[in-house]
Amino acid sequence: MARSADGTSSGKARSRAASGRSEEGRPEPIEPSPGSKSADRTRPAEATALAPRLYIVATPIGNLADITLRALDVLRRADAIICEDTRVTATLAQRYGLASERIAYHDHNADWVRPKLIARLAAGAAMALVSDAGTPLISDPGFKLVREAVAAGIAVTAVPGASAALAALTVAGLPTDRFLFAGFLPAKSGARRRALRELATVQASLIFYETAPRLADALADMAAILSDRPAAVARELTKLYEEVRRDGLNALAEHYRSEGPPRGEIVVIVGPPVAGPAAREEDLDAQLLSALRSASLREASAAVAAATGLPRRQVYARALALQGKRASAEPE
Ligand code: SAM
Q1: 157: Cβ below 6 Å to ligand 1?
Q2: Mutate which of 89, 107, 139 to test ligand 1's pocket (most atoms within 8 Å of Cβ)?
Q3: How far apart are CA 74 and CA 50, in angstroms?
């Protein structure tokens, strides 16, 4: 059922929302699964109406086949699809024959479109939120829409699927038991290093979204602040030129500095700080010397302390000693 974004909806949908019950008087279920009898598309449209609510629907991150049966079913039967970019969603719609109305919802129009969407949902519409790729809200628009829908008492349902962050984590070969999704780091080195400093002691794998032109600089800052941890650069996941490069942060930074920016979309995964036996004296010296190549004494000590689990004072004292040795070894 195609409708405008002005908040109007049919009386039928309105009464469904007002009662919170199906037309037969039973409590509203989450929509039937696509394989079930009630989802049979040969049945009349009214019998297959989606339960009124906001559906958060994941779409592919590259390979168009990476979409769930339930996502397709919801997108097909929704009163409208709320899109980050209607042109991008048009490709998916064409591929899968999705005819539902498409409404643009992005950073530039969100403030005035959101109240209209909430009004339509409150009046009983079933609407699906999608982003250009992957899971909405994950470094993509939608958080405020969900927050306001929840505040307005509108049901919100996840239709999960692809997300670049989790896809990258699963192929990185790094610990997955604890991870922190850090999204995009700031573009400028100073702010990026400050953000990385906040993450340096987190005992978990770190997940970053990154752009190709900034990759080498970002990896160099990661190596300076987080020290030379094991890491992975996952590029163009699920696409033709998918590639995962696994190495220490220093080697990865060096690789992309000498090769130039790669093409495509990128996730960087950094392993957790390596504590314990690795903190032998010679390892400590090696890590400090490596960090001191691109960071100040204070930054290098903090990074290595976080990486090794050794007390910061002890690492700082060792860094001072190493710097002193280096200075006295240099020719006058
Ligand atoms: N919401 C999306 C998700 O769930 O993955 C992410 C949206 S964010 C605006 C886009 C970023 O995700 C890209 O800049 C890149 O860092 C990452 N990304 C998306 N698709 C990717 C892919 N196929 N391979 C690697 N990274 C990808």
Answers
A1: no
A2: 139
A3: 7
When mean pLDDT is compared across 83-87, 96-100, 328-332, the lowest value belongs to 328-332
Mean pLDDT of 205-211: 98
Could you tell me if the CB of 100 is within 6 A of ligand 1? Answer: no
Least confident piece of the model among 4-13, 38-47, 204-213, 252-261: 4-13
241, 267, 268, 269: residue to mutate for ligand 1 pocket, most atoms within 8 A of CB: 267
CA of 209 to the centre of ligand 1 (A): 7
Q: What pLDDT score was predicted for residue 277?
A: 53
Is residue 97 within a helix (H) or strand (E), and if so which, with residue range? none
Q: How far is CA 163 from CA 89, 132, 226, in A?
A: 16, 11, 25
**What order of strands is seen across the sheet that includes strand 53-57?**
101-104, 80-83, 126-130, 53-57, 156-159
Mutate which of 84, 135, 265 for ligand 1? The one with the most ligand atoms within 8 Å of its CB, which is 265
Taking only the tens place, the pLDDT of each residue in 164-174 is: 999 999 999 99
Please work out whether the CB of residue 138 comes within 6 Å of at least one atom of ligand 1.
yes
269 CB under 6 A from ligand 1? no
Ligand 1 center to 20 CA (angstroms): 37
Q: Is 5 a residue whose pLDDT tops 80?
A: no
pLDDT recorded at residue 163? 98
Atom of ligand 1 nearest to the CA of 62: 23
Query: Taking Cα atoms as reference points, which of 240, 80, 299, 247 lies closest to residue 290?
Result: 299
Question: Is the CB of 133 inside a 6 Å radius of any atom of ligand 1?
Answer: yes
For residue 213, pLDDT over 80 is answered with yes
DSSP string, 151-213: HTT--EEEE----HHHHHHHHH-S--SSEEEEEEPPSSHHHHHHHHHHHTT--SEEEEEE-GG
pLDDT exceeds 90 at position 142: yes
The Cα–Cα gap between 124 and 207 comes to: 38
Å from CA of 213 to ligand 1 middle = 15
